[in-house]
Amino acid sequence: MTEREARQAENPAESQAAHKKTGDDHPEDPGRFEREERLERQEHLERQERLEQEDHHEPREQGEDHEQDARQEDGAQVSTGSEPTGVPEAAIPELVIISGMSGAGRSTAAKCLEDLGWFVVDNLPPALIPTMVELGARSQGNVARIAVVVDVRGRRFFDNLRESLADLDARGVTRRIVFLESSDDALVRRFESVRRPHPLQGDGRIVDGIAAERELLRELRGDADLVIDTSSLNVHELRAKMDAQFAGEEEPELRATVMSFGFKYGLPVDADLVVDMRFLPNPHWVPELRPFTGLNEEVSSYVLNQPGAKEFLDRYAELLQLVAAGYRREGKRYVTIAVGCTGGKHRSVAMSEKLAARLAAEGVETVVVHRDMGRE
User: Fold this and answer.
1) pTM of the prediction?
2) Are 251 and 333 within 8 A, CB to CB?
3) CA distances, 285 to each of 216, 288, 296 (Å)
4) Beta strands in the chain (DSSP E)
């Protein structure tokens, strides 16, 4: 046995590979093994390419699917490169709560705000007020001002309102309370005219329901930013008052209503401050001035030239500056200053006009109302 045959017997695989490379065992087709080798290399490259695709593409897609499933299960939202990384801050709507006595004009006040572009919700349970504000914040500015009409029909209802107000204050929501007030006589007449019982009268009389409601609302009335007495107002006059307070595009820091009145017709129940002009001589006893009012220049000059009139105006205007600064610090936006005389025709009217001019000059938006002028 030759040395070559011995090596082939010991390692037949090596011998076969050598035969494939040289083609010695198949002299009839010397290029056969080169073709088969090229075919095997091509098949190997194709298998390797498929393996690389399975190793890199398919597992990544499966991983993305698993990540997406995990996010869906966890309820999380993961932003991609094409999505914004931040969420714009929601604008908290301005809120006005309309409350007050049944029959005092809550619905009329709400309709007025609705005409001014406010989003109005009537008879909303107080516990849902924070939810309403949250929904308005999600509207992307479409609901910038919300007015909610609420009434108090029981102690639990009032407790819910108090909790909602505390929640709004904790969230930093700008909220105001408008309270509609009216006298017992006016409320009784209104309920009798529509032939409807008072919501709280039960088996009693209308006045019993009014008394019960007034007691329940006592604390809320004390917290109100604006109190409007509708005892002597008709629907159009109430709308005019609401327009005067809410029609402006920009909300001022403080709004003042200077109201002249006659003591013989009663004190205004919605007054925050009351001053008495009866320490001045009455133009009523001057025959040439009696037919006129405090809007007349002659009457105004007569009143302001009396001893103590100008000093009172100067010092009371200074006092109002101090009070107005405190109201601003406490977040109170509305103040009603009642200026009274005997009949509400001469002295109170003249002093109200001068006082309103002083306030306006100091940057306080002022509305002048002469409640009793023309009643004589």
Assistant:
1) 0.55
2) yes
3) 46, 9, 16
4) 94-100, 119-122, 145-149, 175-181, 226-229, 255-262, 273-276, 334-341, 365-370
